[in-house]
Write a structure and sequence with these properties.
The protein is mainly α and 85 residues long. The chain is built from four helices and no strands. The radius of gyration is 12 Å and the shape is globular.
């Protein structure tokens, strides 16, 4: 994993933790937000909105089902940031 990927994952972890109102250390790579932190659909939309605003990218809401964990979020965001960096 590159330093860029690590920095992106750390930034995404901060965004998710802020929306879910937990400490960043509580967000594991593979843990499902809905199971581990009782995240709901409104919080998922908020995560997406903050990612779009922070990273200045557009991610369709149809990707939300793929964004249930930090690894999922990273995978989706990586697809939409390729070529934009």
């Amino acid at each position: 994993m590159s330093a860029t990927d690590t920095a992106l994952i750390d930034e995404l972890r901060e965004i998710v933790a802020d929306v879910l109102e937990v400490e960043p250390e509580e967000i594991s790579a593979t843990g499902l937000f809905s199971e581990e932190h009782e995240a709901d659909s409104l919080q998922a939309i908020e995560v997406l909105a903050r990612i779009e605003k922070t990273l200045r990218i557009a991610v369709p809401q149809t990707e939300l089902p793929n964004m249930g964990s930090l690894d999922g979020v990273h995978s989706v965001v990586s697809r939409y940031t390729e070529g934009n960096a």
